[in-house]
Design goal:
two-stranded parallel sheet, globular
């Protein structure tokens, strides 16, 4: 059973709840992408809490089993992490692979960072869509590796043909599928063909497939790229517990791939990157198939309502395949974001070059009803 935010606070205590919310819900603001976007209200201040629709989080938070596991692991907090071995084994069993095919990260963000540092150099660039999730580009720039941006197509999909043409000599190609922020997805045949084309012309290039939103996809043409990652050492799959499992605040992600590829990436791993509470929560979450199905259903309900509300107001939405949607609000995205924030609704930051598009994450159905009333007023 999912917990409301208030129930979560009662369960883990106010300090634990605040820590989780700052670490998870403030991730983009803390990264400097939305300066001041989530500054907390003064203690005891009046007024409703903002509706957080800006960071693609699961508004229901962790399942009960994960919260129980966190409480049960408090006694291990004085010891350095050790149960990450158990989490690795659990993930290997889930995916039918060996433990050496799994690499853990502090959220999938660390997985992406390890891949960038392992495979890009000043002479071997990162190739990615534009817009897409920005972390790999930021890491590449810090490492001195060039970034080659390939604009999305007219349907807001990653332009796989153009990306493949730019991939010759690249160190890493980042394929976010479904893509954040556009919410569009490529089917299994398209992804397989893309991988074949890239590696035919550039056999030493690594392709990182980020499936952070895998569980939300309902497109029948879509399938995980896991088989590609297992059969080809140049392909890496990234997953996270931040989305459907609701564990964004405690940071657990992982990669699946060839053992030698995982070893190459692990050279850049932060030691003790998955703490004992995070590992316990993730292990407990994995068997909760009914909880995952419920989260997917709740997300679908909120997403369908929100899409219909935008379309009824005259703002068509690209069919979304994740826990957010991208809509052309036909005005400056930053001005729209600021106007919504003034009314207590936090939506996604601008994503150039789509300067008139806004990304809206899914909250609970009640949050989306209240948010859409405000958004429609902002849109006039």
């Amino acid at each position: 059973m999912a917990l409301s935010r208030r129930a979560f606070v009662r369960t883990v205590g106010i300090n634990g709840a605040l820590a989780a919310m700052v670490a998870g819900r403030g991730s983009e603001a803390l990264a400097g992408l939305v300066p001041g976007a989530r500054q907390p209200a003064a203690q005891g201040s009046a007024g409703p809490s903002p509706i957080f629709l800006d960071s693609n989080e699961n508004p229901y938070g962790p399942c009960t089993a994960s919260l129980d596991a966190i409480r049960g692991a408090f006694g291990e907090a004085g010891r350095y992490p050790h149960n990450f071995v158990d989490l690795t084994a659990a993930l290997a069993k889930l995916h039918g692979v060996q433990p050496e095919n799994i690499l853990l990260g502090s959220g999938s963000g660390e997985i992406l960072r390890m891949a960038v540092l392992a495979f890009t150099t000043p002479g071997r660039p990162l190739v990615q869509g534009l817009p897409t999730f920005e972390s790999p580009a930021r890491d590449a720039e810090l490492a001195g590796a060039p970034v080659v941006n390939v604009p999305v197509d007219a349907g807001l999909k990653l332009d796989l043909g153009a990306m493949a043409e730019k991939a010759a000599g690249a160190g890493l190609v980042f394929l976010c599928n479904p893509n954040n922020p556009t919410g569009t997805v490529h089917g299994a045949d398209a992804v397989s063909g893309f991988v074949h084309r890239v590696l035919k012309s550039s056999p030493t290039t690594c392709i990182l497939v980020d499936e952070a939103y895998h569980d939300y996809v309902e497109d029948p043409a879509y399938r995980t790229a896991l088989p590609l990652a297992l059969e080809n050492p140049q392909v890496v799959l990234a997953r996270t517990f931040s989305k459907v499992y609701g564990l964004a605040g405690i940071r657990v992600g992982y990669a699946v791939g060839h053992a030698d590829t995982m070893k190459a990436m692990s050279r850049f791993r932060i030691p003790n990157n998955v703490n004992v509470l995070a590992a316990a929560a993730a292990i407990a979450a994995l068997p909760q198939a009914a909880h995952v199905a419920r989260q997917v259903a709740l997300n679908r309900e909120a997403r369908d309502f929100t899409r219909r509300a935008f379309e009824a107001a005259g703002y068509p939405v690209i069919l979304p395949c994740a826990n957010f949607l991208m809509v052309d609000v036909r005005r400056d995205a930053k001005a729209f974001q600021d106007a919504c924030k003034e009314q207590g609704v936090l939506v996604g930051r601008p994503f150039p070059p789509l300067t008139s598009y806004s990304r809206v994450s899914m909250g609970t159905p009640d949050e989306m009803r209240r948010a859409m009333d405000i958004i429609k007023r902002v849109l006039g």
